[in-house]
Amino acid sequence: MPFHPLRVAGIDRLCADAVAVTFEVPPELSSAFRFGPGQSLTVRRDGERRTYSICAPAGAAPRIGVREVPGGVISRWIVHDLRPGDLVDVAPPTGTFTPDLAAGGRHVLIAAGSGITPVLSIAASLLERSRAGASPPAGWLGRAGRRPSAGVAVLGGAEVTLFYGNRRADTVMFAEELADLKDRYPDRLELVHVLSREARESELFSGRLDAQRLRELVPLLVDVPAVDHWWLCGPFGMVTDATTVLGELGVPAGRVHRELFWVDEAPPPPVRPEALVDGPTSDVTVVLDGRRTTVPVPDGVTLLDGAQKSRPDLPFACKGGVCGTCRARVTDGEVTMRRNFALEQAEVDAGFVLTCQSLPASPKVVIDFDQ
User: Which domains, from first to last, does the chain contain?
Assistant: First the structure.
C-alpha cells in the first residue's frame, strides 16, 4: 500500500470535535488520487493507520472529515494539532461504497454522526453530476452499477433524500454545506435532521435514528418501491437497524449499500475445524501489484497478519473488519471469515474476503489483491 506525503491545503472547523482537511495533490499524483464519491483515504502517522472517508464531490480536491474519537491517537492529532502546510502520509483512495453517477435515479441516504462524510460526497456528486450529464471519473467502479428502475427520469437529474441523525444541532458535521446543497437543489434534495438530545418542532424528528423511528419516517417521507439505491453509513446499531427496517419494507438486498464507522463488539475468537487443515500451517500465496509471494501461515492466524511478515506492503487500516481496505479475492483454496462489516453479499459470493478477518481453511490458499 503506497503512501505519499501530501500537503494540507486547508482545515475547516466543523464543530468542537470535528474538522475537514483538504489535501493538495501534486500533478504527478493526480491520477493516483482521483476518487469516486464515497471512497476513503488512509492516513499514516508513527506506524498507526486510520481510514477516513472523503467528503468532497467527485472531481474536487480530496477532503476528509475527521471527528475526534476518545483515546484516538490520530484523530486527536488531526482535530487539534494539524495545521495548513503540514505534510501527511496518505495512501490513494480505496473503497466500493460508490454510486454510478451516470445512472441518475432515486437515492435515499441514511447517516448518523460522522457517517455523513461519505454520504455528503455521494449526495453532492449525484446532484451535481446528474445535472450536468457528466460521466463519473475514470479509474473506479462502484457497487451500484444497475440502471434506474422504470419510470425514473434520468434527464431530470438524480433525486436524493437524506436522513441524518445527531445528538444536538451543535454536533452536526457539515451543517452549512448540507444547507447550501438544499438551497442549490430544492426540488431534488430532501434533507431530514433527527436529533436525539434536543427537541425539534416535531416529535417525529426528536430521538435516536433507530429502527422504530425509521419505521415511522421512511414510509411517511419516501416512496419506497421507487427508490433505486439506499446508502447507509454510521455506527453498527444504526446500520443494522436500517437494514432490518428496509428488509421489512420489501427492499431488495441488492439495492442496499452499507458502510460502518465503528463496531461496539470484539471479533469472535478463531473457530476453524481441524479436519479442514492438514498440518499446523497453510501455504498462502499473495498476489499484489503483479508479484506473487508464498508464505506459511500458522493455524489460527489471519491471512493479513501471517502474510505481512513477508509482504509488509499489503493494504490495511482498521484490522477490525470495518473499513474494507484489506479486501482481496480468494482464487484458490478455502478460508473462514470471522466477521464482515465492509463487504456486500455480492462481493462475498464472488470470492472476496477481508484478509484481516480471514483464516486459511485449506492446506493451500491463493489471495489476489489486484482484482
Answer: 4-94 (2.40.30.10), 101-262 (3.40.50.80), 274-368 (3.10.20.30)
